[in-house]
Amino acid sequence: MTMEGVAWPDEACADSTMGCSETPAQTRRSLVAHLARGAAALAGSGLVACAGPGAAPPAAQGKGCSQPMEIYHPFADTSAVAPGLRRVFADFASSHPQCSLQPVPIAPFNTEKLIASMAGGAPPPLSMLPPTQVTTWVPQGLLEPLEPYLKRDKLAGSDFLPPVWETMSWGGGAWHLPVQVDPNFPFFWNKAVLRSAGVNADRGPQTMDELDQAAQKINRESGGQWERLAFVPWQWYGTSNALSAMGYTHGGTFFDKERKRVTYNHPQVVKGVEWMASWAQRLGGTRARADQLFAGTNISALIADGKIGFAPLVSIAVPAIKQLSPTIELGHGGLPGATAAQAGVVWTGGWHVGAIPGSKRTDDAWEFIRWIGASGEGTSAVAQQMGGLPGHAKSPGFEILSRDSSMVAHVEAIKRAKFLPHSFYHGVSVDLAPLEQALDGARTVKAALDEITEKTQVRYEQQQAEQAQKKRS
Question: Which residues form the signal peptide (predicted)?
């Protein structure tokens, strides 16, 4: 099964200059790219005993649903992903003929229409959501608990990828199932660039030291401007994603669950961000000089043209690069780490689906939720029709996507996934302006991360107090 020109709405690109909106018209099924933001702590993962290791998920069968259901989703009718989504819905309807889906696009995605529909007494049975936003949706009463359904159908935490289950099970409950999951990020390189600089093109760097050594050979300037760079770390899909990368690849954490303390100034996070800031200094004193290379272009074109040697890539970028440079040789591996043992870290985003309170159709909604998130039939439909990676660990969709050369690196990466975006763990907004200042040399990294930690802790404590007050009232 192939598809044409798909581009997922990409939360990873909200603060990026890397051209995430590119949508090359090309027959493929492997274009998936978007991150989610949110917050939560891992709750218990053993609702019930799970099926045997490696067992394929059973097909979902329609039981009692007899009416069409509305579903809110984030894809405009004009978006390239909409046709694939409609095909997935049609596949569901073919096995549930009395229970077709009526899609309601909300782009840009927000909860305003959902809240209004609930207040008016006519909510949809279903809505998609960024999974990490469970920590704001649940306190607002926007999701129906699904624990009874998971127990009934013998679905457990071990049936899902660890970070997927972490968002599903927020607060010890079960709130949503995955539609499509993004692994962030596999690390790619243009083999021709590495060979021309005398760098091993067949084995990617395992550590930041090895990456530094490769950069010394690859970086090239002319007339006071960079014409080729090995990498630009703050351009790894925006400052927020770069911060997650710096923390996780250096063994840092952003939240102490036991102490309930924000830890953006964790020593290993500081070390990782100092490494990133050091490259801003080495490449021109501020980010501006290196950023000139990105003016009017995007990461796919820069890799294809040999102007950037290494970069983490969302899956939509890979076929775009191959379209721009059909003969290119791309290597891929995991993100380098501070040590080889810390290499290959992956955190996830994506889109999930939940049942909405007040619709009086939770049983019907579960028919679709289970089908798309935990059945072989549904997860395969998402893989075939939309190029979406499953969150169900036993989905045959992984095998389907691994046959596509553009998706191999992302299939491999998602199996290493352990983390979520940095803000997930405390669940409040983070002002990264101090970090931006540090990257431009206006203040030290430690001072910037101390300020971010202090201000985020205040917001976290305010949020906790507000939620406690709501429970009491």
Answer: none
